[in-house]
Amino acid sequence: MGDDPDAHVDMDRRDSSQGLVVDEPEAIPKAFPLGKDEYLFALNVNDIERWTVDQVCEKFLQPLDLDQSCGELFHKHNITGDVLMRLGKRDLKEMKIFHVGERAFLHHCLKGMKDSLEQRQRDTILWEGLIPAGGVSYFSSCGECLKFKLCGCFMEFATYKVQAQGMMVSAKPPKWNCCCQGYENDFKDFRLLKEITWHNQRRCCLQTYEMHLAYADDESNQIEVNRNCCGWGGPTVMKKTILKHPDMTEAQVEKIKEAWRNVRLVAD
Fold first, then answer.
1. Which of 12, 31, 229, 244 has the most beta carbons within 10 angstroms of its beta carbon?
2. Nearest to 21 by CA among 105, 109, 108, 101
């Protein structure tokens, strides 16, 4: 028995007639023309979950040189794009992809696609805009609104960029920067966020769309905006967990909330 190379078998290495295939070096696919990582990153991972089985074979297996060995199995098990992004090592083995080289290669490629999707979800800008903006109800006071209308060159603005992982606030000095104010950047990390809610505040005939960010530490909810030497500031007190803008509709806030939930699940 020791002289026969085919005599020794274990759970993962058996004769093909018994339903399992011996591990073979030929199972390892060819190299990518542009490199595996570059190819996987170039895939539009946002569309993968809508792929049919044929599209999975054409856009995923065929470029990897696995369409001949795995295409029939993918059709047999109805591996659509939605299922593809959820496959694990055990699933590949249960599909009867017996070559260890192919299973390891497929798992590595799937992991790269999932990492690429998660990274794009984190980096995608969900909303960007200037604050203050909009009608009278979006200013902190009538004085601030008058300053915006009559003396806009003295007005301070802040650019907000909202992503699934946080919010970047870039405060810009006024055009007429008499007090030599500088630029200020602050990133509000959403990993400590408890909840995102939408509010529609109504005052008389005015309404204001607001996005509220609730943190575990209530003391972090308010940050006073620096005022210049002339006492001009806009707004005087900025609640960083309240973003007021006409774009903050219920649908927009729900989109931000859904993206934040997905990233938080990945982080957990």
1. 244
2. 101
